[in-house]
Fold these 4 entries.
Entry 1:
Amino acid sequence: MYTSLFRYLRPETLAEAEALFQQSSDARYLAGGQTLIPTMKQRLASPAELIDIGRISSLSFIRRAGDRLTIGAATPHAEVAASAEVRNAIPALAALAGLIGDPAVRHKGTLGGSIANNDPAADYPAGLLALGATAKTTQRTIAADVFFTGMFETALEAGEIVTEVVFPVPRRAGYAKFPNPASRYAMVGVFVAVHTDGVRVAVTGAAPCVFRVPEMEAALVRDFRPEALAQIAVAADGLNSDLFASAEYRAHLVNVMARRAVAAAML
Amino acid sequence: MTALSLTVNGAPVKGDVEDRTLLVHFLRDHLHLTGTHVGCDTSQCGACVVHVNGRAVKSCTMFAVQANGDAVLTIEGLGQDGRLHPVQAAFQEHHGLQCGFCTPGMIMTAVDMLARHKQLDETTIRHELEGNICRCTGYLNIIKAIRAAAEAR
């Protein structure tokens, strides 16, 4: 046995899930489990109760209404990647989902789980931030701009559950990532989105938390071509440095991935 | 402990397990279906891939209780009436294995891949195999076997 003992609970509804959480002093929500279960196997997490919200059917859907694409929080990455609705509305988001982990991981891992975990190298945070998305929860609505607060930290309160994410449909968008060859997490991933009121560039994998690059956004408003970013360097200060890549190399990759993302958005 | 009731390879199965029992250990240690392997145990190698409700998943990264009520298919359930599944036959024909340790996971992944793609070129197969690691073959004959199985359908 790898994990500590815990009690598995499978609520039928969100209200029941929240009630179970309130009754417990040490519960964790389980969605796809593709991060939480490995973490528990290493005993870096040892919740007393595991509340499975991955099977609540009202949390799994993809819906387009006008210039808004809404995806339920328990929708697996594989469904987002394969969805005709997503490919039609925001092809870059479908492409992003298709680059997460591997096929088996994409069958289990969910949008809500990914953003609630906010791994510094996860893909979805870059998509949400560049697209100016909004997370709806059991308690409120949180803009991506204030949702991701730090390494594995979000604006979510204890017990609060992400129920869906609303994505404004951009005029065009592109995502490019340099994956770690073993884990497929982003060493650096850059999502670029062109909206009617401007351009947003969001970077994941490079720093402790996803961030925007205003200089690149301003340059792309003037001239939306990869070449427009050629002279814009991102400082290595504060970027991640580990055995896979130094901070200086990640800073270099931000520029390369940003140019590739722009090129992808122009297709 | 939780009383489980699910379908494995088409047959109803019951069991009492600790909630922390991983699906792969339920299959191997409780049901003695040892065709599903534990390789890396860290969600990377794919030796433990099985299908749950028709979708390939890593059974080392799922608790058995999560599959309660579901339909699980393992490598033992692929062949019918003593005959190999076409993907198994293609791996045999094209020598898509050497030591064989990764093979059950490779084949379960390949069957899932074939179900999701009408056409399979080499680039797609390589992308789809990113979650399965083989340390013997260099992948070439695995890809050859999957292409052959795709073309033969």
Entry 2:
Amino acid sequence: METLDAESLAMLEDTLRKTMLSKSGAELDAALAELGWAEMLSEMPDTAIPLVFRLLGETGSHASILNDVLLETIGGLPGGTPPMPYAGGGWVVWERTANAEPTLGGLPLRRVPEGETMRLGDTRRAAGWWLVGTARAMLNLARQHALDRVQFGRPIAQFQAIRHRLAETLVAIEGAEATLGLPGDESPDLTAMLAKAAAGKAALTAAKHCQQVLGGIGFTAEHELHVHVKRALVLDGLLGSSKELTRRAGAGLRARGSVPRLAYL
Amino acid sequence: MSNELFDPATFRTALREWLDENDLTPPPGDQSLDAHQAQHLRVLKALYDADWMRYGWPESAGGLGGPDILRAIVGEEVVGRGLDHPGPYSMLDVLTPTMIDYARPELAAEMVPRLLSGQETWCQGFSEPGSGSDLASLTTRAVQDGDHWVVNGQKVWTSFAQYATRCVLLTRTGGPEVPNHQAITAFFVDLDSPGVTVRPLRTMHDVDEFCEVYFDDVVVPADRMLGRVGDGWKLAMDLLPYERSTCFWQRIAYLYARFDALVDEVKGQGAASDSELGEVYLALHTLRCRSRATQHRLAAGHKLGAETSIDKVLLAGAEQQLFDTVRDLLPGRIELTDDPWRTEFLYSRAATIYGGTAEVQRNIIARRLLDLGKE
């Protein structure tokens, strides 16, 4: 399973997408386990993490598998729910089953009093892919709405103000994907931190512009947008928000007195 | 020897060693444009004589072969070390591929080494007073007269024309019945031809690199045509991928070098500046990662197109954010002290204008990448 040819990869993507569109939460966890998620994660993480987490974002589904990425890093026992840092210096666990905590958008997160500092590079990268998937989902919804919605006698996609918001969203997403795609050989933690920051920022940018383009309908629970907006807000805060990670990267520069290049040709 | 150097990492290491041993630092003091130009030519000559400037260019044009990425690496080292300014250096990356792709092979073989070795400077005569964002509306005319063409018109924003010996010039050769994109023809024009007048523009940042260039009955031999009649628009479009790959990479190196300087100046200020430094870093890092991916796509043989508008939007945004932050973190510096930060801050205002405005880029992204249809 170490490498997949393009055709097998496309088939896997198709299967995953269909599964995620029909299941969410604990049911999706079970389905992913059946599809070999544990093996994918240990044998081909560089393919599996971007693919699976991006699809979670694109489909708006959710599963507790960020836990697995973190457990893989720290060598924890399968099935565990290690506390993860949350914005503002707090800690949460991502429970394996639905809970009664009122987390925005229905993710089974629960605040816990404390946790242990650990290496979060791969987990941040996974959350980053999830965020850009979420951002792409919002962009697709807003793009389709702009083409369909007629006002003043024409599709609103013809108005430059609308076009530029959507263009701005695509720039943010593509930029974030580039940071996620950088091999972090030299400084994996810093590379992952910046990638998570870029992805969080892209998702928040997408949420802002797409919500505006969708107008009134995007504010209703009848339209799908709100699921993604809420997902973006929660995932941005998880493992450190874009703002926090950016500030931390800035502090690192100040301490070092120079700017690590990180990306080379 | 050369084949080993075709590997980017090996090439970079060898180039760095050479640059460490051969000091090409600009002489201190003189910040005039004339001094920059002298330094530009000095650096090119030294790098050409030592072969570095010949890698990544085909042997047919005096190069030593190897992947395009080697050029980006030379640009990164030269500009990132402050040996040359990004503006003059970028002309190489833009105009050389154009000559190789469009000039007669003998003309390219004769001329390209003169540019790369710092014997000559060339300029790019595209924009006109009436044709900025709408470049295809240009009106400088070329009319055939036997075995030569006669050019009349005016160009503007022509960088470094006052130092240039030649100009890659876009002209209109088609009549009103010919669609814009087939009515344009490019020439390689000697700027010492009778009838050429170059007048530098005074700019707000006091570096007079932009010129107006007037053409009054300028005679250009027919064998100086680049491509064929009507190929000019295609030439202009084909030049963009180079401007937005190797050329952007060295500009990014310049921005990182200036960010290094800022971090060094403010590192004693404490945590208050962390967010602003971090925001700049995130913008530069995002740009650098995107540009790296673009260089790799070019290297893999992909044809670059509208997606490079994303690179351009990221570059302009990061550049202005960097210098806005310089002004915020070094209060009063730009206004009260006459040093390079002032010039650079002011120049950065142009980043969302030149090379296709921020608005034009977003229009391209909306139309071509998001497929939103016509406005």
Entry 3:
Amino acid sequence: MFKFSREQKILDIAGVKIGGQPGQLPTVMIGSIFYHKHKIVIDEKTGEFNEKKAEELLMKEKEISEKTGNPRIVDVCCSWPQAFGKMIDFIARKVDGPFCIDGATAEVRIAGAKYVREVGLSDRVIYNSITPHTREDEITAIRDAKIKSAILLTLNTRNPTITGRIQVMDELLAIAQKAGIENILVDVCVIDIPDPGPISKTIYLVKEKYGLPTGAGVHNAVVMWKKKRALTPENYMLAEGVANAIPIALGANFILYGPIEYAPTAYFSCALADAYVAYNARQEYGIKPLTNNHPLYRIFK
Amino acid sequence: MLSGKEELLNKLKEAAVNGDADEVTKLSKKVIEIGIDPLEAVEKALITGVLELGEKWINGEAFIVDMIAAAEAMKAGLSILKEEIVKRGGSIKYRGKIVIGTVEGDIHDIGKSIVASLLEAAGYEVIDLGVDVPAQKFIEAIKQYNPDIIGMSALMTTTMLKQREIIEAIKQANLRDKVKIIVGGAPTTEDWAKEIGADGWAPDAASAVELVKKLLK
């Protein structure tokens, strides 16, 4: 395997450490809740949801996270501006540490930013996401909300290749700076079925050039595949596992693994990949995990 | 043995299929320089090339990135060859004309832009109205461009309601029978498309191209 020649940033976002050289820290797992058509959501418009079921999902994920050693960050998805507050409140009460606010449009994300400022949660929030198309009003809302952490999405609709994704990085960094973002995570933007290959190399290149914590939502690629060609449940889960593992082998620091219901298999595959990578880093470079909670010390028990 | 003309057109086709915009630009200029009919170059090289690629894409042998690159390369070639075609009094025969846009209140661009690129790469003329497009702009586009199909994207449950409003506005303007209307976007469904009186719905970019082909058969 490898280590990066460039020094790698390790961020501490509300208690969750993310980044570093391969083998230093466990992959941070970002799972989505209250996403569009999530069964536990009763009314997307008002933000009404089944609290008991939501809590069960969060508890289950917490247990798995503690078991494998992979920290979790909950991605709070929302489609309606007026619904965001209720969802954010709940997650902030039930989850320790950081969480993402992930609105379907700028209007929803702006509503989320204003809300976290009002209730004093800005320090715990990761804004998901800033793209090259992020407008001035959204940048102002992030800055005004004093949100310091964000995911930058390397979206390049005219050139969604490794090169195209890297090309938008400087533009994204300039937008992030304007928005007052200090803790930068880079999502290398999956758009097609075989993307887990090239986005993994993009992760490597972004980290080698910028040293920033980088990751991806490879689950989207597998879902697109499933929609196009019928996959057996076994093959679907295997595909998720492979798609999760390859970016980790190329240095990914976080995986957006999709619906929170997928936690059991997603954590298992990522933890195993983490353990393999960490064991190599230890043998080849003498790089040891920075925490005893690393999957290397847990998964094989 | 291939003639110089055939060889050049083959190279142009290959460059378009490979998504090599620089090479397509260079070869398109050469087409004009040596006096090959530019319309023939568009039809036999650029459009034929992207159609072949489209088939590969449907068969799972090519991918979105290939289709977008081919569409960009084709645009580069067209920008050079179109001018010469018009000078000669001709016009390009596309497989159909599509006006596409993300509805008012919604600034989501990704899905719509990918669909536009894929349609271009599949040989359709696409007029992209961009994002946050009000009903009036769709109506003006129908009058101005006389498209075969209007495609409306909406990413939010809030803005998908605009798809219904825009269809109603098109009806009010007595233009509904002039175009077919298709809708798409994350919150939309086939039932929704039926409910609002659209002619078709596509769950993703690949299906959108298939739907357009089916509607224009």
Entry 4:
Amino acid sequence: MADVRDALVRGDCADAMAELEQRDPADRNKMLHLCEMGALCNAMGNYKSSNQALLAGVNIAREYDDRARVSLRNSAAFAAALALNDRTIPYRGSPFERVMMHTYLATNFLLLHDLEGARVEILRAYAVQKQLREEHEKRIARTKEEASKRNANMGGIMNKVSENFRDQRALLKKAGNVYQNAFTYYLSALVYELGDETDDAYIDYKTVHALNPDFRPAWTDLLRCSKKLGARGDYADWRERFGSGVPEDIPAGHGEVVVLYQCGLAPEKEEIRFVVPIPVNKRIHPVHIAFPKYKRQPNPVTRARLRLNGREAGTTYPLVDLEATAVRDLWDQAPEIALRAALRAAGRVASAEAARKQKHGEFAMLGVFLAGAVLDRADLRSWLTLPRDIQVLRVSAPAGTYEMGLELLGGGSVAVTPLENVPVRAGRITLVHLRSVGIHGKADYVAF
Amino acid sequence: MKRIVAVACVVAFVAAFAGCARQGTRIDPNVEGVATHDFNPKDLQIIGKKAVKQLLERSDVQDLLASRSGPDGKHPALYVAHIRNRTDEHVNSEAISEYIAVEMDLTGKIRLVEYTKAKEEAIAQLEFQQGAFADPTTAKQVGKMIGADFFLQGELTNISARAGSKKVQYFMFTLTLVDIETIESKKSRVEIQKISKRGWFGW
């Protein structure tokens, strides 16, 4: 995927797509490949192709979810993972990636002016978030039970893991809830508002505010919705909390422009190796294990500025930090990853000790350790064409036709090709989709 | 001998799996081909048929339709407006709309008009026929489009629930007949519930 990411950083989406299309992934990586295609097509403005790829990916994910409790395929994959490494397990997507599949689908449907399709996907996103949270809790309980049964010294192992993740503690704190994506909820609120379902929109704006209290666009949304619904008590509470300076109404004859901005690229995993104490045959052995860790990607752009007919309209507000979410997500999976690594290591030590007792045992033992060092690799798979973070801007403007200029802001400012003749209709919303990687960006719009 | 046995085994193996490539077979469209947890063609048929039947069997609906019949005995005019999908599945709501339109048409109790779909096409054709390029002897008259008396709209919703290995899916479809002049409405409702279970053992 390095070639694909390099092409994206250069601003050459066509080249990135050509690189991706050349790949012929194994079945266990098919879902991930479809996610990459989906995100890339979205970045290029090919929303139908993006949907095709992502819907195919969702079908694979659902097929994994519906497999029998003791599935021969799952059992075979797990056995291979214990013998070799985690890369043999079919890639099912991290929880936040599964939610992003539906988030992308909802965004694509909106940009295709298909409100009904968008509504289906936000409902699916809710269901997936709930399902994955419940599954995570069960998996944690099962991991603890398994570790205890096998006397795996998980405390010692997790201390070592924690030491190696010390530099990412700030990101872990920033991440918040992996199973509730604030952008997904914001998109959902937008879909409800577009469908005149203000009560459901209000519920989701409240969730956005709970997940990201500093996100200012939601303050206006909460005031507007509570006022429209006649929820006087709520309205008074919000007004007291946000102060008198926050606007609540869209002036008569005005419409709204909502910019949805995907900024940068998601972090990539790298392999780190460290020594952990593994109990085997009543003795503690120091063993090297391979572990994945996210590597932060530099991004020269921090925000985007919108101009309407040359006049500054506002800058985007960060809503979701997917880099922090990815780090948090991996940390949540760390006990399971660590347990499998520990069991593999324990297996290698036991095999080596058995080999040593044979004729030419020292060579056999060395062979076992060398094979282990080669085969024991961290699972570095992740959705690499996701953005690093997602930002939103929501402004009102008098109804009319505009040239919309978007500038990527960081050390300086880089202008994206402006959108011409964009309609803003009174009482309606014009959605602008902006995607940037490095200093290259592309924008699109749909007027409702 | 051993070679013959080996070849025979290979041939038997190939013959056994030769049918495994996906082949299609035509079956009666009224038979459920594959029973799925999600919305499937059989659900569409159940909804379309039952919703229309339930509505038209009501005596008050029959009276309402009769009240709009013309003095010449012509049946009331009706069109199918939007069928909304409020479920968490990508359901082809256009297909439901068309199925209901056909079911209504087949009853012979209404005159179906194409207000939402074909009207623009017909207007474009009429404009062409009034223009210089069309033979005036074949041109149709403007101002003869039928004003509808009623429209139908529908909504499909679902509720899903999961407990352990069991999943329940409940669909509810409501069909509403609306009198355009008075906005009086009559409704029918069709419910479908499905349960599926994740097996203990499988591939």
